[in-house]
Design goal:
By secondary structure, this protein is an alpha+beta fold. Helix content is 29%, strand content 14%. The protein folds into two domains: 83 residues, no CATH class; 32 residues, no CATH class. Strands 1-2-3 form a three-stranded antiparallel β-sheet, with no helix packed on it.
Length: 117
């Protein structure tokens, strides 16, 4: 989750149950949802995956009982279409001049694009 918070850009692709990609990758933005999302997400997952989701829930409970330690809190991510304007390292939008060119102050590697050059 640290990486998602630092850089929300992700690649997603359709995959089989073993994780083998079945189609092309697409860029997306990921966002970590808070604990209140569980009330919405769990019923949706149960409806979509039915008995398979319930089996995983039971397996998780049994595993935590056998290990005698509490299970980790689930984390849910929201994926949305990638925003091409998000800066890849800071997660912020770069400043632009009135003409629409990146400003040298926020993008020093592209000073040749500065307005007036």
């Amino acid at each position: 989750m640290k990486r998602i918070r630092r850089d929300p850009r992700v690649l997603v692709a359709p995959a089989d149950y073993r994780g083998r990609e079945l189609g092309p990758r697409a860029e997306a933005q990921a966002r970590v949802l808070g604990p209140e999302a569980e009330a919405v997400v769990v019923p949706l997952l149960r409806r979509k995956y039915g008995w398979q989701r319930r089996a995983l829930d039971i397996q998780g409970r049994l595993t935590s009982l056998l290990r005698r330690r509490p299970s980790a809190a689930p984390v849910y991510l929201e994926l949305s279409e990638a925003d091409p304007h998000i800066h890849q390292h800071t997660g912020t939008r770069p400043a632009v001049s009135a003409s629409g060119n990146p400003c040298a102050a926020t993008n020093p590697s592209r000073t040749h694009l500065q307005e007036g050059n």
